[in-house]
Design brief:
Distance between the termini: 74 Å
Number of domains: 2
Structural class: alpha/beta
Strand order of the largest sheet: 1-2-4-3-5-6
Number of strands: 8
Shape: globular
Oligomer: single chain
Strand content: 15-25%
Low-confidence stretches: 1-38
CATH class of the largest domain: Alpha Beta
Mean pLDDT: 85
Radius of gyration: 27 Å
CATH topology of the largest domain: Rossmann fold
Helix content: 25-40%
């Protein structure tokens, strides 16, 4: 008799447990998911003018100074912004970080209130060369991308003279980072036997003065021809009658419109 009673209890309890458990599981699944929080670690107070940040960055056994310039609108919005990564020429090397604002996108960013880019401008140490800095430069860029609201599909690389050669070098090592490349008066770059296939797909707009006495035009022409021969489609502007100092190109709105017309496709 006891066995029969036990069996009846089991038959009654087990289905009840099943439906209770099922209902609990169902309710757990319905529980709303929390909204993902921003992963960016740095915020800027609202400002009516551009915001300038100067700092240093250490990577392994190297250190480099850099400047970041944010448009005022960056501080009042929550969207991601395009970034220009600017490498200066040899005359701005040293320890005085303010030098990097003498020309180029850094100068433009502080003169034009509606400039639609964040600008990142590292400073090359005196006596050094950008071609030796690719690893720390890309580590710096990674750090900025993690900290600030940057559109990673609209990162544009440019440089002039020593910085032009540095831009070619950095893009050839890390083409996956950049939506477009604009080297100016690029110092002699050794031609690779075979360009990185991903670099061949990056939009390029190179500039060179016709009468450049420091970096002969023929050097840049050979570089562009090599890129074209392997399937690249770079745009190349030769500036009639101009010498080596062509940083005034950065005052040309068309260059920035061209940057914005290009988006990286991962």
């Amino acid at each position: 008799m006891k066995k029969i009673i036990c069996m009846i209890i089991v038959l009654i309890v087990m289905p009840s447990y099943y439906f209770i458990q099922k209902d609990l599981n169902h309710n757990e699944q319905k529980e709303p998911q929390s909204e993902p929080t921003s992963t960016f670690t740095e915020t800027l107070a609202p400002s009516d003018t551009f915001v300038e940040i100067g700092d240093s960055f250490v990577y392994k056994d190297q250190s480099i100074q850099y400047m970041l310039i944010f448009p005022a609108k960056y501080t009042k919005t929550e969207n991601e912004w395009p970034l220009i990564f600017f490498l200066h020429g040899s005359s701005l090397r040293g320890e005085n970080l303010d030098l990097v604002k003498e020309y180029g996108p850094t100068w433009i960013a502080e003169q034009r209130p509606n400039f639609p880019f964040v600008v990142l401008a590292p400073q090359c140490p005196e006596g050094d060369d950008w071609v030796n800095k690719s690893d720390i430069l890309i580590a710096l860029l990674d750090d900025v991308l993690k900290k600030y609201r940057i559109d990673q599909n609209r990162v544009y690389l440019t440089g002039v003279s020593l910085g032009g050669r540095g831009a070619w070098t950095l893009a050839s090592h890390y083409p996956e980072y950049f939506a477009a490349l604009a080297p100016l008066a690029a110092a002699s770059q050794s031609l690779p036997a075979c360009w990185n296939k991903q670099l061949l797909t990056i939009p390029v707009w190179a500039f060179h003065g016709e009468k450049d006495p420091i970096v002969p035009l023929k050097n840049d022409e050979a570089l562009i021809d090599s890129l074209r021969n392997q399937g690249g489609t770079p745009r190349f502007t030769i500036l009639p009658g101009q010498g080596h100092n062509i940083a005034w190109v950065y005052k040309n709105k068309e260059l920035y419109d061209w940057f914005l017309s290009n988006t990286r496709h991962p």
